[in-house]
Amino acid sequence: MDQRVRNLKRLFWGVGSVLFVVGLVGWYLRLAHGHLDANYGSIVTWGLWVSAYIYFIGLSAGSFLISSLVYVFNVKRFESIGRLSLFTAVVTLGMALLSIWVDLGHMERFWHVIRYPNFRSPMAWMIWLYGIYFVLLLAELWFVLRRDLVLVAAEGGRRGRLYRILTVGSRDTSEDRAARDAKVVRVLATVGVPIAIMFHGGVGTLFGVVAARPSWNSGLFPILFLLSALVSGGALLIVVSAIFQDGWRRNRDTILALGRLVLGLLLLDLLFQLSEILVTSYGQVPGHIAALKLMTGGPYWWVFWVWQLALGALVPVTLLASRTRTDPRWVSLAGLLIAVGFLGVRLNVVIPAFATEEIEGLASAVASRRMSAHYFPSVSEWLLTAGIVGLGLLLFGLGERLLPNDATTHLMPAVTPRSPKPTP
Fold this sequence. Notes:
Elements: H1 3-33, H2 48-71, H3 82-103, H4 112-115, H5 122-153, H6 157-166, H7 175-208, H8 221-244, H9 252-283, H10 286-297, H11 301-321, H12 328-355, H13 362-365, H14 379-402
């Protein structure tokens, strides 16, 4: 393994461990004090945790949809990241569900939306689709890994015992069974594509149907959410592949191809966002224009101009469109900037819409800390979110160590390479 890759993995584990440990303080504060330490209130009722939720769910949907290029559309260029895409989708989905779980007033009642659903509510449909999507992801990943798990289980040792549990009694390693597994994976992936589109488009719909928030009330929101998911999910896969697949050397061509794909999607996403801003500016709808002004010139203007636009878009576009596009290291940096920058995008979706008072003067009419249109995440909110990120990073690392990898049975390539023909 290249020394640079070792250093990347050490950095990955170090950052993940620090964030996870720091996050334990946030978890304690949330469980001990409820929402008392959070800075949202009666006007800005959603904050960092909801923003993180729609951010992580976008990463999951985007990663899964890119895996469908391999398992549904048989795009050979991305075969090497097929399994990695599925694993990324699983981990980021878990991070998303944790983020929205801690935002609930009564965390212990999360199951009520499943037990007592109201299917006239987009939120109920969304939660049920999450459950279906999660089961489908696990099933598809299992069928993708099944043969490799069986092969390594036969080697014995602690790793072999773990794999015997994961195989759920399966022992068949024949080519016929592998072919049947591939067919099942194709069916699951095909079914998963509309589900991923529905549930993440559903997140956009959940915002778009809220007529009381003019800056959300747009038919473009479901499309923007899907497009953003593909951009951020693809960008994350660039970074993960660079770290766990030696992407600067062995998987270089795939990194560069992902960079080209992400560049095209990012430019399209920027076009859609610009269209939304221009239509808003021309229409001068009071609530909508007020939210836009807050986003671009309010107290946290830097989230839009620096975090979202400069670091999350302009710098990556420059790296992916100039000579640096042929260097996997610069492409990986662009992917990292895009992936991080899209959290700023999600914050700008959630916060300005709430910070625009529905009744002018409402915040000053009541003397209460909770009656404020000004919101910035509290220390406990940042700590808990950092802990969720740290947990996700550690799960990625554990996945690389515990699941079959290139040194054993080629986990990360989407298909096991054929054995070379014997020479005469």
